[in-house]
Amino acid sequence: MSGEHRHPEYIWWNGERRPWDDCTIHVTELGWSTVGAVFEGIRAYAGDNADELYIFRFREHLERLERSMRLVRLTLEYGLEELTAATVDLLRVNEVREDTYIRPLAYARETSGKRFAQIANDAALLINTSPMASHLKTGLTQTAKVSSWRRISEDVMPPRVKNISNYRNSQLAGMEARLDGYDTAILLNHQGKVSEGPGACVMLVLGDQVITPDVGSGILESITRDALLKLCREVLGLKVVERAVDRTELYLADEVFTCGTAAEVTPIVNIDKYAVGNGEIGPVTRALEGAFDDVLRGRDARYGHWRTPVEVGAAAVA
Ligand code: PMP
Q1: Which of the ends of the chain has fewer CB neighbours closer than 10 A, N or C?
Q2: Ligand 1 atom 10: residue of nearest CA
Q3: What is the rounded CA–CA span in Å between residue 170 and residue 58?
Q4: Run of H or E including 184
Q5: Are residues 94 and 6 in contact, defined by beta-carbon separation less than 8 angstroms?
Q6: What SS3 state is found at 276?
């Protein structure tokens, strides 16, 4: 990492590792170029000895990138093995030693003039990394507001994939919540059922059950959600229920948390001025944060298949 903004030395762009300063596009491309873009958000976590990073569920993220691209009619011209090697290389040459966000972004190369709705256009692809510290087990909590914006539905936009344009909906809900004095939003779908947060899924704890909106509720097909449901069942021994969730269940749950690559596990302690449980981080959320942290940092051998280890020690870079 270099410079006061701590940007990495290198970015992977269209098949090559390139210096940060060389990765520019013309300002006139700014308007439409991102409308058709899709992306991934992935994390790499430092292991306890800091000579090793673990990319979390990298394969699943790349497979979702493939699905996102397919849905917006962009062709992925690289194999998943190639993208894995490129990302591992990037983490090494950038000498990454800390928790890091990895963001592949795919977009149409040519969007100017009449090319706006061109089919089978060339896809450009970049992968960049930036530091993102974990907040697991730090005691961070959030308040939430049920948004007046509804989550985009299947007949408008494709909620299940990481389509950049979907995030305007998220942004409007997030801004509204912030301006109204809350940390985040929870969006309902067009059926009036709970969908998800602006960039995270939502889970409720009620007794020995963990309840979360099913994939038909207009949610992203979240990789963290899938992982946490497994950990709830297999490590914490809880019952897991995926179903339509009513708004009032949010207000009556024992515990609520959001989850996602950036959100990790984020306890929600107050929703629309209703204290969730006793208004503090609940025991299930706390236990799940610990179990998840053990998986992410390489301590839990049972979930080794979810980790792509990257040697980043001096020997590996040399
Ligand atoms: N929903 C939305 C809208 C998101 O942007 C994210 C973050 N990618 C999630 C849910 C959580 O998904 P994941 O666990 O795959 O990061």
Answers
A1: C
A2: 200
A3: 24
A4: strand 184-188
A5: no
A6: coil
> pTM of the full predicted structure?
0.95
Helices H, strands E: what count in the chain? Answer: 8, 17
Q: What is the CATH number of the domain that holds 32?
A: 3.30.470.10
pLDDT band at 120 (very low <50, low <70, confident <90, very high): low
Q: Are residues 240 and 279 in the same domain?
A: yes
The verdict on 103 and 162 lying in the same domain is no
pLDDT in tens, 36-65: 899 999 999 999 987 999 999 999 999 999
CA of 261 relative to ligand 1 center, distance in Å: 6
Looking at residue 3, what is its pLDDT?
A: 46
Segment holding 171, helix H or strand E = helix 166-179
What are the φ/ψ torsions at residue 113 (nearest 5 degrees)? Answer: 55, -130
Per-residue model confidence as pLDDT tens digits over 249-295: 999 999 999 999 999 999 999 999 999 999 999 999 999 999 999 99
Same-domain pairing of 193 and 278: yes
> How many domains does the chain divide into?
2
Ligand 1 atom 12: residue of nearest CA? 222
SS3 201: strand
Task: Select from 224, 292, 295 the residue to mutate for testing ligand 1; criterion: most ligand atoms less than 8 Å from CB.
Answer: 224
Distance between CA atoms of 121 and 115, rounded to whole angstroms? 9
Q: Is 109 exposed, middle or buried (0-12, 13-18, 19+ CB in 10 A)?
A: middle
Domain that holds residue 178: 142-296
